[in-house]
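Backbone-to-sequence.
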């Protein structure tokens, strides 16, 4: 904007010295060029997106699609706060193209997809940019996702929509985002949101168990979507107490479509939260494994939320965090959460292929054998916790899904492989990176090896059982 010359040079273990020198020579020649010398002018004002004011309260808030079993509950929960949240259609290749055009391609793949979704909605006329607001969850932290808000604002401005307000869905107050007219009263929706999460997790668990055992193709998806619709309608009406009754009926229906096949080849899924649950951004890895007759084990989203309680205690004991508020929240929500968990788990016991959850504290204990629990960047210790949880259930083949260059998952996920192998020698780990240029052929080729190994492990388990 100020007319200055900028040169970017990246250095890594495979950088070409010739390429670096070429860039430096080009820079030097540019500086020597007398024609390029011009009077330095003040930088042009960058058009940032406007802030959310009280007058924007009635506008629909656009949110990205997340996952089949969880997205249906976003809008009903936000309705309890008085906001009209509209979930955008599932992402596609057009989303990626818009994301690459208006966002830096060095950011993580989920950000590319999400920014592209927002811009695509305006470019295709799905929403009027003058009558809409863009919203995004934000937890803060050390990963690139902390920059989502600024990247979304920059992308919208570059695409010609600087007047679209951007709001953050965050329970904390340390986020610097101009949204004076928007208040995310998390405490008001904490209980209905958590009950909805429990219901969605229960449906997801039964779906993954049933879809590879269904008598007729398509039955599991039909039952899943039907009960997600019933559940979201109950939340929208403010009747979350009815969700356990709906879940009881869902258990009966899922029981009725399954063949009696106990021991199937199994593969566990871990990794970055968005790629782990979002079908498009993971290039339908989970769907492909299911099509191969593999029972896929996807961790519940509840564990991602409940790691908060473990982190609070660990940080307090380590002297990293202090304050009575955290202790109060830990005690109050801990009792509430435990009551709800036992209530829904009791209903799930009637499911034919029910498996009890080890609980977040048991998982944390297993993770502590591999990493220090103060390691909380990104998914942090949750990745080793989930891998250990799978190993203790006899699921030896695990796929770790992550955006390319996701430092937290590369450090924690790949960094623990040697320790995992030492503790669980039969464990077989595959790390898959996703970005806009990821090759589907390369992904599937590697998945074939995992699927074959899972089948061999299944045969070995059968022999041991006999």
């Amino acid at each position: 904007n100020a007319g200055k010359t900028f040169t970017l040079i990246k250095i890594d273990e495979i950088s070409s010295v010739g390429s670096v020198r070429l860039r430096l020579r080009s820079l030097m020649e540019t500086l020597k060029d007398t024609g390029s010398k011009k009077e330095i002018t003040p930088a042009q004002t960058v058009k940032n997106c406007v802030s959310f004011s009280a007058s924007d309260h009635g506008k629909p808030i656009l949110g990205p699609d997340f996952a089949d079993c969880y997205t249906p509950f976003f809008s009903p929960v936000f309705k309890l706060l008085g906001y009209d949240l509209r979930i955008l259609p599932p992402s596609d290749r057009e989303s990626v193209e818009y994301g690459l055009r208006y966002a830096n391609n060095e950011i993580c793949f989920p950000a590319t997809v999400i920014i592209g979704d927002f811009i695509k909605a305006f470019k295709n006329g799905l929403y009027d940019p003058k009558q809409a607001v863009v919203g995004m969850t934000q937890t803060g932290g050390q990963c690139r996702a902390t920059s989502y808000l600024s990247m979304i604002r920059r992308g919208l401005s570059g695409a010609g929509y600087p007047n679209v307000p951007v709001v953050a869905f965050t329970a904390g107050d340390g986020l610097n985002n101009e949204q004076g007219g928007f208040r995310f009263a998390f405490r008001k929706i904490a209980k209905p949101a958590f009950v909805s999460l429990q219901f969605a997790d229960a449906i997801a668990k039964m779906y993954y168990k049933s879809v590879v055992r269904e008598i007729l193709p398509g039955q599991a998806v039909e039952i899943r979507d039907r009960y997600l619709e019933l559940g979201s309608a109950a939340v929208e009406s403010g009747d979350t107490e009815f969700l356990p009754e709906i879940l009881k009926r869902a258990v009966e229906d899922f029981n009725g479509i399954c063949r009696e096949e106990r021991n199937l080849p199994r593969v566990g899924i871990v990794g970055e939260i968005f790629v782990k649950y979002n079908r498009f951004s993971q290039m339908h890895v989970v769907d492909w494994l299911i099509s191969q007759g593999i029972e896929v084990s996807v961790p519940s989203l509840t564990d991602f939320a409940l790691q908060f309680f473990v982190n609070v205690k660990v940080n307090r004991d380590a002297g990293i965090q202090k304050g009575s508020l955290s202790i109060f929240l830990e005690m109050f929500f801990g009792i509430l959460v435990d009551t709800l968990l036992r209530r829904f788990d009791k209903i799930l016991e009637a499911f034919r292929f029910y498996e009890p959850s080890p609980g977040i504290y048991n998982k944390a204990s297993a993770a502590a054998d591999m990493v220090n629990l103060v390691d909380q960047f990104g998914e942090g210790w949750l990745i080793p916790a989930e891998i250990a949880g799978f190993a203790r259930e006899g699921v030896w083949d695990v796929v770790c899904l992550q955006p390319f260059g996701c430092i937290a998952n590369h450090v924690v996920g790949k960094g623990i492989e040697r320790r995992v192998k030492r503790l669980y020698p039969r464990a077989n780990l595959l790390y898959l990176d996703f970005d806009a240029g990821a090759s589907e052929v390369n992904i599937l080729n590697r998945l074939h090896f995992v699927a074959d190994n899972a089948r061999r492990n299944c045969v070995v388990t059968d022999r041991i059982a006999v």
